[in-house]
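pasting for ref. prot 1 ->
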Amino acid sequence: MILERSESQPISGDELSRFFEECQYTAFRLETLQVYDVGYEEEAFRRFLADGAVVTSRSHEEWARWVGSGRQFRRVHVVAEPLTDYVRFECAWAYRSSVEAGEDVNILPVAEGEWPQGIPRFDYWLFDSHQLVRMNYAPDGSMLTPDLVTDPQQIVQANVIRDRALHLAIPFTEYEKRFDADMRSL
C-alpha cells in the first residue's frame, strides 16, 4: 500500500515548522483535499465568499519568507472540477501569492469522481527528498496531526509519487488562465 500509517510517529506543529526551517534544498507538498479547515484562513475565506476580496495575512508573509529563502518549494494539488469554494479561494488567495514569492505551484485537475492512478488520496510534505511527514485530516478538512514517517520504503515511494504528480500536473500560472480575474468561475 502507498504510504501506510505504520512506522510513523505523531509530531507537533512546532516540530513540523522546524522541518521548514531546517530543510536545505527542497520541500514538496502533495495536496489532495478539496476543503481545508485552517483557522488562520477563516476570516479571509469568509471575505472571499462575501465579496471576492483577497487579503494578505501574516501567514502569507511568513510563507513568502520560507519560499524566498533560496530553497526550492514545490506543490501539486489534485483538484476535482468543478472546484469547491475553498479551492477557488485557495487559488485566488494562497497560490497566486505563493507563486509570486517563488513557490512552484502545480495543479492536477480531475473530473469529479475520478482520481489519477498512482496518486494517494492524502497529503504529505517531503523535505530534502528524505524526511517525510504525512498530514492527517478529519473529514471536514481540519488538521488532526502530522506524522513523521520513518520507513525508508515509504520515503522512496513518496519520491516516486512526487515525480508522477509533477509529471501529470500543470503549472498554476497556466491553470489560472482558465478562470476569470477573481477565480469566481471557469
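and prot 2 ->
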Amino acid sequence: MTSTVTQPQTSQPQVVEVSTPRVHNLHHVEVFTPKPNESLDFFTRVLGLHETHREGQSVYLRGAGEWARYSTILTEAAQPGLGHMAWQVAEPDQVEGWARRFRDKGVEHKLEAGGSRFAQGDTLSFTGPFGHRTELFYDFERYEPEAASKLLSQPVRFPTPGIGARRLDHLNITARNVDEARDWYTDVLGFKLREAARTPDGDIGVWMSVTSQVHDLAIMRDGSGERGRLHHIAYYLDTPETLLRAADTFVEEGTPIDAGPGKHGLTQAFFIYVFEPGGNRVELFSGGYPIHGPDWQPIIWDGANIEKAIVWYGGQLPDTFFTVAT
C-alpha cells in the first residue's frame, strides 16, 4: 500500500498597492521679515547659512549639511511671520495623489506645474485649518557645490562661518485649539504624535513627526485669536558644546536671547532661543532622540510633570515664550 503526500497549494503572492500618499520630510520654510538686510546678515554671518539665489523680494539660503538648493527663504514683508512651510512627499506621483485626497476631504488647494517655484517640481499648495500656508512637492534641485567634499556623504566641504548651523530641523506653529490641530495633522496629513503636554482642558502643546525624528512639527496653544502664527524655526547643531559657543556669539553680537541655554524634558532637546532682527524667534537645537519603531506610544506629560517637560534644567522660560509669536 502506498500513500500519497499532497503538497499544499501555493497561491500567487498578492500585490498590495499602497494608495495613501505620505508626507516624507520638511524641506524648507519661508520667513517674512520687515528688515531684510539685517535678517540676511543674521542668518548668514551669524548663523552660518549660505546664500544660493535671489528672486524678487526673497533670498534663498541653505545650511552646510543640506543637499537641496535651499531650506530657508527670507522674504521682505511689512510684518514678520511664516510665509509658508514646505514638505517633500514620498513618491513622485503622490503630489497628484494628495490633490485627489484633498478633493475627497474638501480641502481647498492649488496644483501648479514644476517651475512655478524656484528649484521645485509640481507643487500642491493649501492653507491649513489655522491659517498656515503649506506646500507639498516631490522634485527639487540639489545643490551643486563649486568645491565638493571628498567625504561623499557630506554635500560640501564643511565651512564654518559664524555658528555653523548644519540644517533646518523643525518648526513650531501656533493654533487656538491644539487638540483640533493635532487631529487634523494626524488624520489629513499623516503626522504621528510623539509627545504632548496635556491638561484637563486639552493639549497645550504637541510634538509630531513624519520622520524618525522626535519632532518635525510642534504646535502650541495660541490665545491671541490670530491665525497662521509662527512660534519659531529651529536649526540643528552637531553638539551641545556648539550650542554653548552659539550663546557666546549671541552675547557678543547683541542678539536678544529669549531663553536658554537649557534642556527640555520634551524631546530631550538642548536649546537656546533668540530673536533675529526681523522679529522672528529662532531656536538652535541639539540632542533629541530617534524613533524607529512603528508602534511608538506617545509620551504624555501632565500634572506635576509639565514643569519638567518644559524645562528639564537651565532656568524658567519667560512668560513671553508662551504669548509672543509672529
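Residues 205 and 283 are 17 Å apart (CA to CA).
The helical segments are 36-46, 94-105, 178-187, 240-253, 306-310.
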